[in-house]
Design brief:
Low-confidence stretches: none
Number of strands: 0
Mean pLDDT: 92
Distance between the termini: 13 Å
Shape: globular
Number of helices: 5
Helix content: 55-70%
Radius of gyration: 15 Å
Largest sheet: none
Structural class: mainly alpha
Length: about 110
């Protein structure tokens, strides 16, 4: 849960790095909460509204998290735009998000969130 909280604490942090574990744990908690709100939206309209608000609120920290993850493997955050290339782009990003952290000579700093 610490990784998920760190995602929200670093809302506009596009400069540092995020570990593999930190990225995937935050994504896991995000998916669980989104699924839970989606299921509950069938019960009441208020949960549908909460689901929409949560999705909009989580957009920027999710992008920042992905950029910090790319920084951890010594790639520019601009590579995030490769997601717009159909089929290949998102697959390439998922593969990169699974890469091991680059410890030596990383231009994005030494501290990982």
């Amino acid at each position: 849960m610490n990784e998920y909280v760190a995602m929200w604490k670093n809302y506009f942090n596009f400069r540092e790095r995020t570990t593999v574990r930190g990225y995937w744990m935050a994504v896991l908690f995000n998916v669980i909460i989104a699924l839970l709100l989606g299921v509950l939206s069938n019960v009441s309209n208020i949960f549908g509204t909460l689901s929409m608000i949560y999705s909009i609120a989580g957009l920027i920290p999710g992008i920042a998290l992905g950029i910090r993850r790319l920084h951890d493997i010594n790639k520019s955050g601009l590579w995030t735009f490769i997601a717009f290339v159909p089929i290949i782009g998102p697959i390439l990003l998922i593969v990169w998000y699974c890469f091991k952290s680059v410890d030596e000579g990383n231009r994005f700093g030494t501290e990982q969130i």
